Amino acid sequence: MPTTAPTAPALGDVTASDSTLRRFLHGLPGVDAVGLEARAASLGTRSIKTTAKAYAIDLAISMVDLTTLEGADTPGKVRALGAKAVRPDPTDRTSPSTAAVCVYPDMVAVAKEAVAGSSVKVASVATAFPAGRAALDVKLADVRDAVAAGADEIDMVIDRGAFLAGKYMKVYDEIVAVKEASGAARLKVIFETGELSTYDNIRRASWLGMLAGADFIKTSTGKVAVNATPANTLLMLEAVRDFRAQTGVQVGVKPAGGIRTSKDAIKFLVLVNETAGEDWLDNHWFRFGASSLLNDLLMQRQKLATGRYSGPDYVTVD
Question: In terms of pTM, does the model score above 0.85?
Answer without folding.
Answer: yes
